[in-house]
Design brief:
three-stranded antiparallel β-sheet; 5 strands; hpI Integrase, Chain A; DNA-binding; 2 domains; mainly alpha; DNA polymerase, domain 1; DNA binding; globular; Integrase_recombinase_N; single chain; Integrase-like_cat_sf; two-stranded antiparallel ribbon; DNA_brk_join_enz
């Protein structure tokens, strides 16, 4: 039933409660953060009946404003717009509005620049990891050849690694999330993986097995790889600190840990792995994400591809005829 005095933020609270019941905790926390920071302040004290397309367009423009001290990425803006559209759809479904208002979430394409390690840098890192043994070094090696996310690596238990069959099973992830109480403190949460497709089997290269096995606990298969206990996984931030220290000691520039995942994807494609297989290994639900965000073609690889094309030309095998003197460009 239509409520003439209902405010937009009243409906936002109802919508958030529905998401809390239907979504994973990490997803709900993300939605709550975006709602509290960007949606609720803008629509404060605005009745639903006053919301119209010009107002929504002004809101959209405010997110895109280049004057902002901390400009938002396209992915964040797109997510906020999708949330607002979902709230507007709920207002129609509950009879609060007579029609569905809609904010186009499509934005100008802006491919994120995510640096990857060059082949020489990767070799240098692997040389260091081989020369300096430790569980952190072994897990970084594991990341280089599986592309697992840092939270997935921190959530790995020894029972998830099947040495005899040469694969691992990604079943959980670890994240540090902000509490939803008044303290706003964060806590470490062990939960299911990011999506259904993220729950996956990942093959292991044979050379990694003897690198990992010395640290395994056959008598305690429920122990986490990194914390060596059954109860508390390592905080991803702690592991990233170890990773940063290792890069420094290896004499390498700092790239955040997600660059390891991008480096893995790039090596897979440049060495001939088909994108569909790579997409499944990475745990993507959409092949387009794999190709658009996780494949970084180096100049060396582009030259190699051009050389393959050049080899098809008859000019490579026969001398070119003399060009007419009167030929112009």
């Amino acid at each position: 039933m239509k409520n003439e005095t209902m405010y937009f933020n009243d409906l936002l609270s109802i919508w958030l409660e529905k998401q809390k019941q239907a979504r994973a905790l990490s997803t709900y926390v993300k939605y709550r953060h975006l709602a509290d920071r960007y949606i609720s302040p803008y629509f404060r004290s605005i009745q639903l009946s006053k919301v119209d397309l010009p107002m929504l367009q002004t809101f959209r423009n405010s997110l895109l404003s280049p004057d902002s001290l901390h400009p938002l990425g396209n992915g964040t803006i797109r997510c906020i717009l999708l949330l607002v559209n979902s709230i507007l759809r709920l207002s129609y479904e509950t009879g609060q509005t007579n029609g569905i208002l809609y904010l186009p979430p499509r934005l100008p394409k802006k491919r994120p620049e995510v640096p990857v390690f060059t082949l020489q840098e990767q070799k240098q890192l692997e040389h260091y990891l081989t020369a300096h043994t430790g569980i952190s070094e072994a897990v970084i090696y594991l990341g280089l050849y599986t592309g697992l996310r840092v939270g997935e690596l921190c959530a790995l238990r020894w029972e998830n690694i099947h040495f005899s069959d040469r694969y691992l099973h990604v079943r959980h992830t670890v994240q540090r999330l902000t509490r939803l109480d008044t303290t706003h403190k964060s806590e470490l949460i062990l939960s299911g993986p990011k999506s259904i497709s993220s729950n996956r089997l990942v093959p292991l290269p044979a050379f990694l097995l003897p690198i990992l096995q010395p640290y395994s606990h056959p008598e305690h298969p429920d122990y986490f790889l990194l914390s060596q206990s059954a109860n508390s996984p390592m905080d991803p931030r702690t592991f990233q600190n170890h990773y940063q220290r290792i890069l420094s000691q290896a004499g390498l520039r700092y790239l955040n840990f997600h660059a390891i995942r991008h480096t893995f994807a790039t090596r897979c494609i440049t060495n001939g792995m088909d994108p569909k297989t790579l997409s499944e290994i990475l745990g993507h639900s959409d092949l387009k994400v794999t190709l658009e965000y996780y494949f970084h073609s180096s100049l060396e690889f582009k030259k190699e591809q051009i050389d393959r094309l050049t080899a098809l030309s008859p000019a490579v095998h026969t001398s070119l005829p003399d060009m007419p003197h009167n030929m112009t460009d």
